[in-house]
User: Fold this.
Amino acid sequence: MTKTTLENEQIKRDFFDQLKGAKGFAKSSVVAFSDAISQWQKFTENESFSKFTKEEATAFVEWLSTKPSKTKTGKIALVTQDNYLRRVKKFFEWLSEQSGYKSKISKNEVEWLRLSKTDARIARMGTTRTEPVFEEVKKVIESIKGKSEVDMRDRAIISLALITGARISAITSLKMRSFDKKKNVVYQSPKDGIKTKSSKLIATLIFPIEWREPERYFVEWYEYLESKGFRPDDPIFPATFNDIGNKNTSKAVVSKRFWSNANSARNIFKTRCLDAGIPYFNPHSFRHLIVGMWMEEILPEKYKKAISLNLGHESVSTTFDSYGHSNMTQNEVFGIIKNLKNLKAESKSTSITQEEREAIEKLLKRSA
Assistant:
């Protein structure tokens, strides 16, 4: 075994140990990373990882696209190419922070390990599109006229999913005390019984998207519940029951009971999508959408970190596959989120090339 081969294998073992230990990756996932890195080693003929350059990264992308494969097209499928590139990229990002490699591998050059924007979208789309576009969500929300309590509630729950990206299990367990109307913050606190992933405390400032109606619909619903006498421990999105009127007629109204699980809320999304003539997109897809909306802009690393924390991710790499600014206070996060709209306006007046835009765009494939 040559010195270079030995060094490569040793640093790979360190990376795999980090995946298994610190990150908690399953054995099958580690094997997938190993396979991807092996593709890189085949391409470079096992040269030292420290010799990584953006030119080599670009050539590797091209090599993957033309490599023979036992598929109908005779080439590696785009989704497989995308998986290889994402894993190799993750490895070199980690490597760029390790002793002996820090001064040799630039994180900016690691960014070149990517498919083109078009190919990436095709690869991550699969056979069925799994997330809506903004115009489709807008159509769903606008189709609900709010003529009844149930309409108002359904419109508000879909609106909140859009403007916070919160998980449906958390949204359906929110209490009146969970929303601070003055600060415009939704506090997802496990101590209050809010069902967050891994029981994490998540404070989410409503994202300042350009279309303000969803925020208004949610706040109007919240204030309507206040007028009905809902207390701090009552649900923001209560279950329904059939109210029998004086003429022995029945209509659905909201109760003060929580849903037993999130399935009823998922059915709301399904029903309202289909009623609006839109394919059903599950609530979690709205979490993908909010990230995609901001990824259309040029975002400094600190802004990416704030968005990541606002969504409740432990690491910005989960959201944007990037690093930096991991120790911001809650006030700093909220300050940056409030300024996103200004940044959006500023970025529109800034001239950038398509190549530069593609180099910084990292669409969230799957939330943690």
Observations:
- The chain has three domains: 3-125, 134-284, 296-360.
- Residues 3-125 form one domain.
